[in-house]
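Incident log entry.

Two folding requests arrived from the same account within the same minute. Monitoring flagged them as a possible duplicate submission, but the sequences differ. Recording both here for audit purposes.

Request one:
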Amino acid sequence: MQLGEAVHDTSYTRNTPVDLGAARLDFLDGRHWVHEVKSSSRPTPADQAQGRHYCHRLHEIGVDAQGAILHYPKTRRTHRQPYTAEAAEQAVTDIADVLTVAAARTSPERLTRSACQGCSFTDYCWTE
């Protein structure tokens, strides 16, 4: 997570983060596109889910988010993800899935170590 914070702090210094309470997005532009700066070099399903979640949260408080733009400074690429009706439906499903896992009495089985490559939370799962 420290790497991600360092990438954000040095890549987009003119923008102000938006605090949504339990979530903090990197910045929101004047057209209501959520911008997230990522430390990886390419989009992942988790990055896309994060963008959908932020758009969902903004819609809940009355901000008409148009979608998410994921920035990858390492490769100087961006990935634009419009917030469609299907994306909104997926966000609701993702949240329900997370709440189900969080409410479970036991943790789910760990993924294989190679599946955790690049995850900021690897230490939580793999520290004995």
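Request two (distinct sequence, not a duplicate):
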Amino acid sequence: MLRILVVLFVVVFGIELWGLIAVGSLIGGWNTVFLVILTGLFGAWMAKQQGIQVFRMVQFQLARGQMPTETLIDGVLVLIGGLLLLLPGFISDVIGLIFLIPYTRMILRHLLKRWLWSLISSGRIQLFFRR
């Protein structure tokens, strides 16, 4: 498992570096640096806005006595999207935006729930309930 993570880490950052060099050769080095900083700032702002919205929805659902399961999944997706937008690189920025936009996040949430339920039903993840 550790080998896979190391290879994934190296490959992802290699692709990000390649993307930064390619964009830098097209628009110039300083413009690329400015664009990376701008996407980082925009990502932090958008993650904050979406995080506040998710937090308020969790509070609202808890106040009504509802279990905020889907909203908590949204919170995890917003956190991942915000982290991806703070990383330098354009590919991680695009993926981070996909995680932060509410419509695409809804699709990701649905796919994540289906994947988790398949893991639970196959027995690879076990749930324990105590009474």
